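Hey, I'm writing a tutorial for new members on how sequence and structure tokens pair up, and I'd like a real worked example in the thread rather than a made-up one. If someone can provide the structure for the chain below, I'll link this post from the tutorial.
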Amino acid sequence: MRILVVDDDPGLRQSLGLLLSEAGHEVTAEGDARRALERAPELAPDVILSDVRMPGMDGLAFLRSYREAGGKALLLMMSAYGSEDAAIAAMREGAYDYLHKPFRPDEVLLTLRKVEEREGLRREVATLRASLGAGQVQSEVVAESASMRHLLELANRVAAHDTTVLITGESGTGKEVLARAIHRMSARADGPFVAINCAAIPEQLLESELFGHARGAFTGATGERAGLFEEATDGTLLLDEIGDLPAGLQAKLLRVLEEHEVRRVGESKSRPVNARLIAATARRLEDARAAGEFRDDLYYRLNVVELEVPPLRDRPEDVPALLAHFAQRAAQRLGRPVSYSPQALSYLSSYRWPGNVRELRNAVERASVLSESGRLERESFVLNAGANGNGNGHGYANGGLNGHAEGPVGDRGDLVLKGRVEALERELVQKALVASGGSRREAADLLGVSLRTLFYKLRRYRLE
């Protein structure tokens, strides 16, 4: 293992260096904690042995600064008589163990052997989690095309590190799904996954959502509240639509990324945070930078690794697999079989999908809800006529409002369009609510309307 010894006693540094080198470890020793902190990133030690009591920066301050800088090595604190309380305090801050001075050589080697065993188990767990996570990802991220398979390979490699990731792609391509996949494949999989859409929250509230606020920080702040960075501790925070982040918050986000700490609104003291950041955007950030709407320094800090999700029209070989996946999901939700004809598959494969995977998902859900037999035909789908690749697309198939040809009208009362449309609309809203299990947001997605529009329809038809 690579070991860094930090102690102001030159005799101890020399004796530890000889002992650990003879045991086969690669050892570097520093007598000054600040100098050790500067060298730690280049040395990339597996273990750091640090004294608790040192002039200038003591061991506890060294530990905190090292962790805040993103250091991952295990820390073993060394304490003399009378400094056990400080060593125990260091363990509360995340130190692995401590050695009481004076210690015997076999004590040091035994402790390091335990560290090696622990790290070996950790690596095994990480490997197992990655393999299990990859299996979970395959069930969520459908990837038959070469471009998507390559993207998943990159995501799998990136997931193993805490590197900031920027996911780009058109709206509806599945950027959040990919972000969740990266989280599940990472060592943070047991931690929370927290997502926020930066474009959906007013600027005056977004800062509080991200960083939290103190009691009385503004009107309505009746108590203190942790922000999403704190909620995502030991996990992953997804900032969706990062391209719409207001200019004032861009500078504050940059500070969080560089210093690994947040300051709640209304407070003067910063708090350390430990959350991996993934950003996503449908905007071209290069254009936003050129227009002066997005900071260059934040762009480069976010864009450590960029993963671009291709639009569905550029990977038509994924459509059959996605159709099968969404049909299976619809069957599980509805509690009955859902299948589709070869004609339906051919029709959907030729469509351009301007709304990408989200549009396909909603189309399958809508068709499944409205189908009485559970068999989806070409006529079951309501698609945009102008987006069909073969030029034969149409909106409501065969002219029927529900996807089927209408029979002859019975009397002149049947010709009153408003009444029939309202009756159909009410029926569709009811079916969407049933299919979504009562979730109004999901019902709005199924209907292809905004949540506000759905609430209006619920009140209009007294379905609340």
